[in-house]
């Protein structure tokens, strides 16, 4: 291998590395812009929550962390299986929740709320599916 061939290989590697660095800079710019947008949206949400909290009647207690977690698990199950139609009992078994009637009825109410909010649809009686 002579010196001119070595210089040519070095120039090729330099050009490839420069192109890669330029590409990474572009990605950083895009991610920085996306992060700025997300942070602005988050600030709007925090401000909105503060306003709503200040307007809420004092006897209106926020949902417990356990309730929020169950809702999150339900929504996650539907997001993971968007085409699947769940019966309440099947959903309980899938999530590892108790299958006694009072628990089933609470989940049925939660699913009804998610239907009214437009997240789920009810393709048949007692069946729930993610709205597409």
Q: How would you explain this protein's 3D organization?
A:
The protein is mainly alpha-helical and 132 residues long. Helices cover 70% and strands 8% of the residues. It has a three-stranded antiparallel beta sheet with strand order 1-3-2. The chain is elongated and about 85 Å long.
Query: How many E strands?
Result: 3
Unreliable runs, pLDDT <50, ≥5 residues? none
Which class of secondary structure composition applies to the elements? mainly alpha
> Order of strands across the widest beta sheet?
1-3-2
Average predicted confidence as pLDDT: 87
Q: What share of residues is helical?
A: over 70%
Helix segment count?
4
C-alpha Rg, in Å?
Answer: 26 Å
Biggest sheet, open or closed, and with what strands and sense? Answer: 3 strands, antiparallel
Which oligomeric form is depicted?
Answer: single chain
Q: Give the CA-CA distance, first to last residue.
A: 62 Å
What is the global morphology? elongated
Order of helices and strands: HHEHHEE
Quote the beta fraction.
Answer: 5-15%
